[in-house]
Amino acid sequence: MFRSVAGLTVAILILSACSVGPDYVRPEVDMPAAFKEAGQWQPAAGGAPVADAAWWKVFADPVLDDLEAQVEVSNQNLKVAEAKYRAARAAVEGARAGYFPTVSGSLAKTRGATNSGVANVDSPVVTTETLAASASWEIDVWGRIRRGVEGARATAEASAADLAAARLSTQALLAQTYVQLRAADMQADLYRRTADDYTRFLELTRHRQAAGVASPLDVAQAETQLGTAQTQLIDLQNQRAQLEHALATLVGRMPVELSLPAEARLPVLPPAPALVPSTLLESRPDIVAAERRVAAANAQIGVARSAWFPVLDLTGTAGYRGGTFAGLVSAPNRFWSLGPTLAMTLLDFGARSATIAEAGAGYDEAVATYRQTVLTAFQEVEDNLAAARLLEQESEAQARTLAAAHRSRVIAENQYKAGTIDALNTISAQTAELSATANSVSLASRRLQAAVQLLKNTGGALALTAARRDD
Description:
Structural class: alpha+beta
């Protein structure tokens, strides 16, 4: 008997070392060594960039730092992602439980009779008391349980990456919204000062009309210019209010609970990004999540294929059975049973084949999703590398435009006061300077938002350190 049990144990251990289904191999994705839009950026001194969870600190804005700190604690979308991650971890523990036997206990009392087989003779009614414990253990011969645990673990890892991606996305959205709010503050300050200037210009024009050197048309044009600036100021105040409400929602607060004083300044624009290897994107949260889902789909193929093989269960029962509870737990009432059960489906009319085909299709879908995620990541990085480079050039051109518009406005106002030009020419010069100044603020905001987006697109791991660019 001992030899039989030992032989069976050895055979089970040998078979259990194998798992049906393909072993996981990460899908290949052709990644270029460098980004197309990297241009002449050179690596910063000190080696490769280092990931920093508090990546937004490069903008050197204490208010932004405080808002970002509240995201992790109060944002409800992050709480949803975190709850999903905890559920995925619990699923791993549930799958691991399959490695161990299931034990149950029972206490029962029954009354019954059986046919005695003799005519006109009633069988006696018998009372049976039972106290028993039973155990069932599926021997994971074909690796069905192992593949299930493997898939659950990969799904949990994907869920962890989803949480990281949700956190990064929320942080980036908050940073961009904050930049837009400060840009609105700057624009409002610009239009407020401009409205004051236009008010003085209107008064000057009215005085000139009273002196007979300006026409009613000049006054009407000055009034129109002032009204337009005041209208734009009100619109900016509306935009600012909505952006502040959005920030409150992102930090998990009611709009009434968040009030940010207006500040006519933008966060610090960080230095140009250092050139980093394209393989850095492999650590981007959404790419990690997509790759882990490929691993989970691969494990599911193994689970599906294991249905072709018999299930080996080792079951045992032990307990006491007697006619009364009194003295039930005694040697004469003891019973037990122990033995293996080998069971398999003989005919299912293609159900198992369909399940395997479904698992294979799920794997192909996961692989395609993973590769598409990588392609999208490269597109996003290339887009924002191009934006960083071209917006810098645009900013230089805009600075020249603004300087010229300022000179034009100063000359026009001096000539108007001297009476050599009319109000229309002066108003045109003032409007051109206002437009150039507003465009400069908008461009600075766009450069900051592009920097935020570039950090997000590299998974928050791109160090915006001082980089050198060869001209």
